[in-house]
Design a protein that fits this description.
Layout: H1 2-44, E1 50-53, E2 58-63, E3 67-68, E4 77-82, E5 86-88, E6 91-94, E7 99-108, E8 118-127, E9 133-142, E10 149-151, E11 157-160, H2 164-211, E12 219-220, E13 225-230, E14 234-237, H3 238-246
Antiparallel strand pairs: 1-14, 2-4, 2-13, 3-12, 4-7, 5-6, 7-8, 8-9, 8-11, 9-13, 10-11
Length: about 250
């Protein structure tokens, strides 16, 4: 009787012991499948405060100091401020009064004849009223506040306008003055013939004096309106922009 009971107990225990490892193996892949999506979701979560100011954005500025090619040098600092808020999707990304800092990259003094004065400015940083600072790649797109200057290329080079009309006017004045002075001097020296000869020389000298004068400098007064163009998309922290807006 004892032997029979022992023999019947062994088959019942064997399947139970064999099933335990199988259950453990089945549970392991389930844990791995649930963990993998969680890690991927955390890695791909975007920053909710990151906001992009796109390339090509144009922002109006007011110059905070006077600049002239007469005394400006390469490397000199340039200071301006935004004249109007820049808004995207009902959100202010650049408040009015945000400081813009830059530097003079190149200056060209005016010369005789066709050589015109030039000034190249690049803007390098944007400082919000809270102190939050964003680095910029930006240039001058337009100079609506400077009637005698214009932007000649994509780099933002400001160039003095041609002064052809002014030179003609100066030449006429120089010719008149030179002719009068030369005529008087010629008359004193050789009578009527001398007056004619002296007058011609005076006219020629007056015209030459006017045409050999240097052209105008590029002059930007305090408060001059400029238009800045963002050359490459930049990312700003929207939460820090809101702080800047609240402290105005």
């Amino acid at each position: 009787m004892a032997w029979a009971q022992a023999d019947t107990a062994k088959p019942a225990d064997a399947p139970t012991q064999a099933a335990a490892p199988a259950q453990a193996n089945d549970a392991a892949p389930a844990k791995e499948l649930t963990a993998a999506p969680t890690a991927a979701t955390l890695a791909e979560a975007p920053d909710p405060n990151a906001t992009v100011i796109p390339a090509g954005t144009k922002i109006p500025l007011l110059l905070k100091q006077a600049i002239s090619t007469k005394n400006a040098r390469e490397g000199d600092a340039v200071y301006a401020a935004t004249a109007f808020p820049f808004v995207v999707n009902d959100r202010i990304l650049v408040p009015e009064g945000t400081y813009i800092q830059g530097k003079i990259m190149h200056t060209e003094h005016p010369g005789r004849s066709k050589k015109r004065a030039e000034l190249l400015i690049h803007f390098t940083s944007m400082i919000y009223p809270s102190g939050y600072t964003v680095m910029l790649p930006a240039s001058v797109e337009n100079t609506p506040g400077a009637d005698s200057n214009s932007v000649k290329d994509k780099e933002g080079t400001i160039q003095a306008d041609k002064d052809t009309g002014k030179r003609i006017e100066d030449a006429a004045k120089g010719a008149a003055v030179g002719g009068t002075v030369g005529g008087i001097a010629g008359a004193a020296a050789g009578g009527w013939s001398g007056a004619q000869y002296g007058g011609l020389l005076g006219i020629a000298g007056g015209v030459a004096w006017a045409l050999l004068k240097h052209g105008p400098d590029v002059k930007l007064e305090v408060g001059t309106s400029l238009e800045m163009e963002i050359q490459r998309s930049i990312t700003v922290d929207a939460s820090r922009i809101q702080v800047a807006k609240a402290t105005q």
